[in-house]
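Usage

Read records sequentially. Each one opens with the input sequence:
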Amino acid sequence: MREVVVLGAGLHRFGRFPDKSLQDLGREAIKNALDDSGVPFKDIEVAYVGRVLAGMGAGLSVVSEMGQTGIPVINIEMACGSSTSAFREAYLSVANGVYDTALVVGFEKMQRGMLQISEQASYQTVMGLAVMPAAYALQAQRYMADHEATPEMFAQVSVKSHRNGALNPYAQYQKDVTLDEVMASRMIADPITLLQCSPTTDGAAAVVICAKEKAAQYSAARSMTVAGWATGSGKFESHDDGEGDAETNTGEVTRLANQAYARAGIGPEDVDVTQVHDAFSPGEVFTIEGLGLVKAGAGARAVWEGRTEITGDIPVNTDGGLLSRGHPIGATGAAMVTEIFRQLTGEAGPRQVKGGDAKVGLIHNAGIGGVNILVFKR
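and closes with the structure output:
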């Protein structure tokens, strides 16, 4: 398989844009990514599009804003993991020589309120478990009992994420919040309060990838290499007393992370900056443990002690994450790739980690249908 590099990335700011269409959002993100990469749209050979709520044919209508060049436009839906799934498929098509260049796009316009994640007549719906705050809250309660963690430790995730979001001009929320404000916000599912929940959001993100052997012909002076990946869903184990859920079960994250590390030829100790799927604040705690960045049971204290801050030894969600950057579900994964690209190319400005010397970045993005883990190297 050929080496594949990311040459450019672009965003439309995340937030609420009732006066803008999906085409408006997507067009701006795609243009920004193309300009960033130096790749003209006429050279793009295929587009993979992550979207969830937009309906049939949405990918084609957005990509066609840039022109109609006859390329295939492939729509992919995996809920919150849609655009990392699109990225993986684009990567595999280039790595295997089917195409030399590919565009990855994610976008969404979302209604206010909680997302329904199960069929109305399902067991999960009847038991009140078909809303994600409930799943995270139950895990958080068990975690606190097992590891002597406190609700304040989970709330600190939100404090850190909003601090980072205030440094990101593309974030939905660009304002610091205090621990007291997070704790005093409306209770959603104990111990998760409102400011520990990711918002529903409008937004778009785009990424341009290319075979490394072809990259020199474009004007972008920097790139990052796709070094490893893994994807999968919950796996039943007859000896396991935990739920086989790939979003909140650290065992599933560990299984997939080990696959990605093996493909990349690294270990968790080599990761310089990480993007994780913090749909709710406990998610960051669970995930950094599952990824092996900290020991089991040490995640909440790592956040509390500042280790996941931009200035910490394991910086996480430097752009504000889902909690502050926002969570337009089809665009979230591509936005994660964008932030890792900015970090590894030294272009993250006030969010920059390790003095611009970060060499390895990792993404964990969960969706209904599984988890995607991506590893990149400078």
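Summary fields computed downstream for this record:
- The first helix runs from residue 22 to 37.
- The mean pLDDT is 93.
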